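Quality-control log, excerpt.
Job 1 of 2 completed; input and output follow.
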Amino acid sequence: MPKVKKVPFQFTNEIQNGKHILTLSGNVQKKYWRDDDVINAKDIRESLDTVTDDIVIKLNSPGGDVFEGIEIYNYLKDHPSNVTVEVTGLAASAATFIIAGADEVIMNVGTSLMIHEASTFAWGNKQDIQKTLNALETIDDSILAIYSDKTGQSADQLREWMNEEKWFTADEAVEFGFADSVKRAEPEEEPQDIAELIQNAVAVAMANLSQPVTDQVEQELKPKSLIARLRKGE
């Protein structure tokens, strides 16, 4: 697996416009010490347990511990609030379980998603190695179940992508069911041509100036008006 650059840690919890915004940036790991800078299930539970508003999670993570990611997945899946995850940079490895637990997933333009097989280190004799291999295969089956439920893709297709260590663009993540939409910038209104604006303004002004004259001419040409003038000897 190619090395992913470290993502700076950020964990903020705030309310904006009636929504609960949780910003998660960094590695997904179990928190062993109070000052560990990691995305973890305990802090997320403490932040969201009492929340009844809609929840928006802004996520940027290269992943980390599979079991911690699955714990967060199940917590979000069972949360009574509507949960939206917005990927602001990267959602890779165990971080993809966080998006799988959401009711809606939004990819920002230029963001990425990556899935792969479970990996670990092993040491010992062949029996020890075999036990590790068996554990990895079981974990892969668990990961497949999560992705299958989220995307509707077949197990064979998902396994192929995991073996490949597949990277998805924002649009591909939507195409294959990992996300629901891509957040794009609102198009700016094209400014009107200055010459056209001036021309329209002049046309309106001329029309307003000529209107009284036109009304007077029309009045003079009416039959009753002509008869009255003839009687007066005009």
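Job 2 of 2 completed; input and output follow.
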Amino acid sequence: MSTSRRNQLAGRKTLPKNTRRKKKRGRKMLRIIMIPLMILLLFLLFKSCIQKKNQYADVDATQPEMDVQLLDVNPYSRPGTTIDHVNGIVVHYTANPGSTAQDNRDYFNGLKDSHETSASSNFVIGLEGEIIQCIPTWEMAYASNDRNADTISIECCHPDENGKFTDATYRSLVQLTAWLCAKYDLTADQVIRHYDVTGKICPKYFVEDEDAWVEFRRNVQDALEKQ
């Protein structure tokens, strides 16, 4: 061994045996504590994923409560045109943050006087999950352009600009959509967005978050399977 190496070894301080044992025990205790914590963390993460997946497990395809406030028959929002066959459900958002279902229903009905535009929807779902029916399901609404004649439309209120629905609105949307699918013998694949008809960013959140749209249709299918 070289002189420099001996000098290096000679300069080291040797820890007392008790200190070494304490450090070893400390490391062992840390491992004993960390392993259960990691298991607990993984369990909580798994539980969170399961709960998120099953968040709407209690929603089925029964007819939801709704307030029937049919629009007056008029050329601007309720033409009174009969739908021969329902081939799909179209989901929309109001693009009017903070507005209520009643606000939107009254706006549609007011078009008979204002003649501002032609617009309406069969249903409007509010921020608290309340559902107002504006047009019978066997009549056409002015909502989905080329698909007005063979679809039922649902407008959804939203609290802010990002277009995401409240949980109450979402739950009602899942149940209402599932009920309509069951009523007209449709599948979740026949539920579409306004975007899928015209390319319009509507409903905004479901267009910008494709995974959220896929999850919504999965929730609808799950509700249908509870029949």
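Post-run check on job 2. The radius of gyration is 30 Å.
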